Amino acid sequence: MSEVAFKESLGRLAGQLQIYPDEGLQSFLFRSGLHNEFRQIGSLRNVLEIQGKTLPAKEVLERAAYVLGVSSHDLRRCGQWRSQEEGRNGWYNWFGTRLPETMVRTHFRRFLVGADAPDYTPATWMLVPASHCPLTFQKLYSACPSCGRELLWSNAHELDECPSCETQFSSLAPEVLEEDFRSQYAASFRIVDPVESVRAEALEKLPKPFCSWEAGDTFCSLLNFAGAVRGLERAQAGTEYPFAGSRRYTFLEARHVAAGYAILSDWESKIFDFCLEYHRTVGSPTYCRGLKHLEKYFKTPLATDDLWSVIEDQFSQAIKQSKIALYALKASPVPSKARGDLISLGEAREVFQIDDRTLQRLVPNGGSFHAKSDPTAGPVLFNEARLTKSVAAYKDSQTYAVAAQGLGIPSYAISALIVEGLLAPELDRDALLLANEEPLVCARSMEDLKKSIAGSNGRGGRSLVPLKELMTWVADPRAWAALTAALVGNELRAKVIDPDRKTPTFQRLGLPRQEFLDWLGQKKSVWSDPPHDSFAPATKSDAAYVLDTNSNAIRAAIIQGVLSNSEGDPTKIAVSSLVSLAASWVSTKVVAALLERSSREWFESFSLEGVTALPLADQSGTTFTTLFDRNEVITYCESRWPRRCPLRLI
Q1: In the chain, how many domains are there?
Q2: With contact defined as beta carbons under 8 Å apart, do 131 and 188 qualify?
Q3: Which of 213, 394, 506, 631 is the most buried (most CB within 10 A)?
Q4: What predicted TM-score, i.e. pTM, was given to this entire model?
């Protein structure tokens, strides 16, 4: 069903009305009085999608079609009813072509002032970039020029006066577009004219490939060029980085749309000059970044890849020529209005990719760089070199924070690691490397190693052990038992980063690097059971420390016979039984940490399918903790996360 036939079918419900082929659906319903019929079945805004962001419910759409005497399929396709079949945000079916939903706004009512205002609202006025009428070139209003109240379809019953302040619109003098922009501005909106024959004629005048695109695709490309022109214009004023916000159709003015059409209609010859003008305005540092932005604006979001491939070769040649010109200009830079090494706040925001709040902390009042112009006289320009140093220092600290998060240690401990030579000064966000290209692992990321391997100096520091050796060694239960016995027997000590002194200190129950490697080399060659008899008996607190549990659970383990008392001292625990238990079982805290859950959350109902559990309970039946078979836990976790580091599974 065509737009005219659809409106004729609606007109039969409201009597004979004159049909305008370029009139919008909302305007027709308002003019015919059918909005009252819609109010009988629901909100006019929801049914007509005047403000909603989603397609109306199916039953609402069917009831609306029943009242209007048309099919729901025709109602869905007509006018500006949204279709969400091709994307999350959806498109408007704009008289046979499609436009993004952000470009068509139908909740407000646009109108002209003066005595020559038409009796209906053309659909083109509902386009967000249309700041003036494409036919009369008079300024369009969506709010009262006097009081500023927006005239929605639901509260504006007449076009003669404002319902709030009663200003007579016919008595106001219209604001007319300048003569220089009229022809190109009118040609821009003929591309999306509601009449199909007008759109076809407008597309024929455009160069390839735009003449073969859909009208909506071509119009989006035009507005992308218009946004680029607006960004360049604001960059020349020092208020915004070029191309920033070019997709914000609301801020486009008539001159920007006209300039976008000028580039679109002769883009092969004008794009090179546009790039050079861009370079003269912003200088070499930001020019290369801007080329990437400029390249993406040739790719309309509506056009598919095969449409883009048509102009890819031609556009790449233009970019190559612009880059050649850039290299030539580097030898003899073009003066940029005596700006020298100054940079505006808007440019800094985009160049350094930092939000406004962070820049405000770096910029003002005794900062590491200063302004060279009076803020009251114009835009503030800052010394780019000093700003670069400040931003670099900020990003270094940010990198330190990322490194500290990756290693599970405080950020101030990163400096100590660099001083000690364990981390290279050039920190990489993606890969934290040792000086010998061996990654470090923090014991805090593994609950069972947190207390048994890596000690703490009580000041927030964490021990670091080499990942490669530990990962290949601890996988064997016998090696784990030997390590546990060595820790209980105070045979090894850990290197802990001291955040106060910035120098390494030593703490009980841990591993210094070289001492650990020497001890590891001896144990690797034997792989025999540890000499348990050579170690002194362990206390209950030592046992709780090694097993990562509490003293109540240790007493329960003794009652159940899982742990045995020492023969020489009944108040203490035999190291052999403690080592055997630590080598074969892991606590609920360990498993909860592997599953990234809190141990308190999983204490009552924690269970793993196929993993043997050993609850530690006293004689009254109170369970203090649950131990799980170590090998079965490793197998279970490896099956769920095959790519996870094996060290996290110990």
Answers
A1: 6
A2: no
A3: 213
A4: 0.44
